[in-house]
Amino acid sequence: MNNENLPLSVLNRLPAYLHFVKYMYGGATVSSAVIAKALSLGEVQVRKDLQMVSGAGRPKVGYVTAELVRHLEESLAVSTKVNCVLVGVGHLGKALLYNDGFEEYGLSVIGAFDTKQITLHDGREVLPPEQLAEFCKSHDVAIGIVTVPEQAAQTVADELVSAGVMAIWNFAPTTLKVPDNVKVKNENLAQSLAVLAVQAVK
Amino acid sequence: MNNENLPLSVLNRLPAYLHFVKYMYGGATVSSAVIAKALSLGEVQVRKDLQMVSGAGRPKVGYVTAELVRHLEESLAVSTKVNCVLVGVGHLGKALLYNDGFEEYGLSVIGAFDTKQITLHDGREVLPPEQLAEFCKSHDVAIGIVTVPEQAAQTVADELVSAGVMAIWNFAPTTLKVPDNVKVKNENLAQSLAVLAVQAVK
DNA sequence: TAGATTGTTAATCGATTAACAATC
DNA sequence: TAGATTGTTAATCGATTAACAATC
User: Fold this and answer.
1) B167-181: per-residue pLDDT in tens?
2) According to the 3-state scheme, what is the secondary structure of chain A?
3) A 108-167 residues inside an 8 A Cβ radius of B
4) Which residue, of A14, A33, A187, B183, has the fewest CB within 10 Å?
5) Is the pTM of this model over 0.90?
6) Cross-chain CB nearest to B4 (options A105, A195, A202)
């Protein structure tokens, strides 16, 4: 019920709960055990998480599916449309631009920027970086996605910060320096795979 | 020094240490404080991590860069070539196939599979799924990368498991069921961004 | 020597798990 | 009522941080 200040560990599990309960599961009510099994988690953990987010479970019954979906969506602010821009339209940038999974969580990538002005397959135009700041300000952009090469990442991050974004999703293999009030999430694919590999080989 | 059984929390930071010390930093010796500052971590944490991995720091001096690089590379098994295959050559699959950051950690994506047989820009051939099992067995493939749609993911995972891969890197937004001895790492991009968004908006 | 820097032990913090009480 | 399932409190576990000892 206490929707603010959920621990990050809990927050990280909520999208999976929502996806399962909303799209994969059919019943009118759902128990923590069913969710736990589907997602390979502990059922006490699921129950504790849902307690924080919903608190509307009933003994012997479980959670009313529609109610739980609503509570999860509230906690994830799904109905708040979050506008994003993407800078760096290489292969990875394109993959994110064509990704149709973001809408499920209320996320839209509404602008793409690159020094090369191409037109995407779906007709969207890639804009020059000079227009980034103005675009962000006029379109209420909250998040910048950085898919440029490592050398350009800090410069792009600086531009995004001064354009007023509140968070940066960084795919460049480098640590960005930003003010404290801007949240950065690094998504280093090579490093993720490297860690998996060392576990697998071990 | 105790290279086996590093905690995952530590292991996750090692690639960043290696990348910084090997490619971004120039000096012959390096201190934990310098690394910590560059990566926005605590310096005690860096020192503890390096102690587990190298244990060759010297008071007043720091770590000999070349030695530290070697120890980090050993811990990450960089010199062990790890062969990967990728199944599902959509936009995201292509982005990973064209990613040139994997080699840094000894990782190679040596085969790509899809029901559509296309030729990649660099001349590589995409193979039909029927050849997956035989390819994995004959090429000593350790890791399978799953970039197919959600509906196909479990089937592909089953095929990869029976083909003998030791780990699966899953980009489909679903929890895969695999035997205990196979390690799965989920990389759900939409869910990652959703969590960042709720933090940013908050 | 003095000071910088590592290494280690203890304290803190947070997350997970276990045990069990509450309740429909 | 009995049993299933949630909610809560306490215990455990692991990771981080702080304090300080060791040493070049």
Assistant:
1) 999 999 999 999 989
2) CCCCCCCHHHHCCHHHHHHHHHHHCCCCEECHHHHHHHHCCCHHHHHHHHHHHCCCCECCCEEEHHHHHHHHHHHCCCCCCEEEEEECCCHHHHHHHHCCCCHHHCEEEEEEECCCCCECCCCCEEECHHHHHHHHHHCCEEEEEECCCHHHHHHHHHHHHHCCCCEEEECCCCCCCCCCCCEEEECCHHHHHHHHHHHHHC
3) 142-143, 145, 166-167
4) A33
5) yes
6) A202
